[in-house]
C-alpha cells in the first residue's frame, strides 16, 4: 500500500474526535470539519479534495471568518486562536519566503495588515506558499481596492487554496 493510500485509510478509520482534530489542521471552520468527517469514508485522494471544495463552497461567511482566525497574519507568528503544532508548522512553512524580507518590507506588511483589518474587519489572508513578502505586500495592497463582499470572496478563495495544500500534506502527497 502506498504511503498516501495508507494516510487516506488512516483518515477513514479515525474516531470522530480524532478526525476532527486532524482536519482542523487543514481548515479552522468547525462546520467544514464536521462535514468532512461526515463525508467519510473517502474512496480516493481526489474524493477528499472534491469533498473539501464542495463543502467549503457551501459555508456561510461566518464559517470562512472562523477559518481565517486559524492563521497567523502575514509576517506574524501566531494565529488569533490556538492551533495544533502541525498547523503552526505548516503556516511557518507556507510563509517561509517572507522571513527573508527586509525591515522596510516587514514594516510595510505590518502597516498594510492594520489598514486591511480596519477596512474589512478581519486580517488579510493569502495562500503564501512560494510567495515572497514583497509579492504578498503587493497582493495585499491590490486587494485593498476591493469592495467588502468581493474581498471576502477573494479571501475565502485563498483559504480554499490553503485547505487543499494542507490536505495534500496530511495525505503525504
How would you describe what is shown here?
- There is one protein chain.
- With 173 residues, this protein is mainly alpha-helical.
- It has a single domain, classed as Oxo-4-hydroxy-4-carboxy-5-ureidoimidazoline decarboxylase (UraD-like, Orthogonal Bundle).
- It is 65% helix and 0% strand.
- It has 9 helices and no strands.
- It has helices at 3-13, 16-24, 30-39, 45-57, 61-68, 85-94, 103-120, 133-143, 148-170.
- Helix 2 packs across helix 3 (30-39) and helix 4 (45-57) packs antiparallel against helix 9 (148-170).
- The longest helix has 23 residues, at 148-170.
- It is elongated, with a radius of gyration of 16 Å.
- The mean pLDDT is 87.
User: What is the SS-derived class?
Assistant: mainly alpha
Radius of gyration: 16 Å
Largest pleated sheet:
none
Shape: elongated
| Element order: H for helix, E for strand | HHHHHHHHH
What percent of residues are in strands?
under 5%
Please give the structural blueprint:
Elements: H1 3-13, H2 16-24, H3 30-39, H4 45-57, H5 61-68, H6 85-94, H7 103-120, H8 133-143, H9 148-170
Helix pairs in contact: 2-3, 3-4, 4-9, 5-9, 7-8
Name a few traits of the molecule.
UraD-like, 9 helices, single chain, 173 residues, elongated
